[in-house]
Amino acid sequence: MRLEGKRAIVTGAGSGIGKAIASRFAQEGARVVIADIDLEAAEIVAKELGDNTKPYRVDVSKAEEVHKLINHVVDEWGGLDIMVNNAGVGVAATTTETSEEDFDRIIAINLKGTFLGMKYAIPAIRNSGGGSIINIASVAGLVGVPERAAYCASKGGIVALTRAAAIDHISEGVRINCICPGTVLTPWIERITANYPDPEAARAAMEARQPHGRFVMPEEIAAMAAFLASDEAGSIVGAAMVVDGGMTAK
């Protein structure tokens, strides 16, 4: 119960990593807003997790929607302690293969969405007496990953933005860090591999590139998020916490 009494928002919490983080936070005693662009998915997760969770529809690329989300939580619960900027998308493509439309969409959701989440959450967390922001980046923000050009750009931006914001706002009691997952077993795997001529072979190749021989599980990312959100992580500021089964150690 490390997060007992804490008030949290998790974006992209209707499935995958976000759902696992929301579940772990609820288990640790937090009240959690399950924020997702798919309201039906958010409602299903909130129903599964119980009374301490609330579903909320948000498009993280829209400033007014993110601002309303933060204000809603402050109005409902009297403040905000934890913000997890997790919502994200990606496509399988090289730089030359990536359309301008896909590039703009990935940057808008992944990078701008994280920026907006911090922009509006930082004052709310500061006014609540301090707390934690956790951005979900990726190993793709630390090393080059084949056929993920725009995704790598967006996640590298999240790592850099996390560090800059962490230095700017730690004096206000707001700790900002990011997590860099490796290849995590989520519905995103199916969406990415569906674009390949042989989806099963593409999936097997993604799993094989993990040195520990398997996909990272969403619950493993959630465990790191729960630690970063807790008071135990009080001296972790501006860090990029890698959870990748050894992928970037090679």
TrEMBL record:
<comment type="similarity">
    <text>Belongs to the short-chain dehydrogenases/reductases (SDR) family.</text>
</comment>
<dbReference type="InterPro" id="IPR036291">
    <property type="entry name" value="NAD(P)-bd_dom_sf"/>
</dbReference>
<protein>
    <submittedName>
        <fullName>Short-chain dehydrogenase/reductase SDR</fullName>
    </submittedName>
</protein>
<dbReference type="GO" id="GO:0016491">
    <property type="term" value="F:oxidoreductase activity"/>
</dbReference>
<dbReference type="InterPro" id="IPR020904">
    <property type="entry name" value="Sc_DH/Rdtase_CS"/>
</dbReference>
<keyword id="KW-0560">Oxidoreductase</keyword>
<dbReference type="InterPro" id="IPR002347">
    <property type="entry name" value="SDR_fam"/>
</dbReference>
<dbReference type="Pfam" id="PF13561">
    <property type="entry name" value="adh_short_C2"/>
</dbReference>
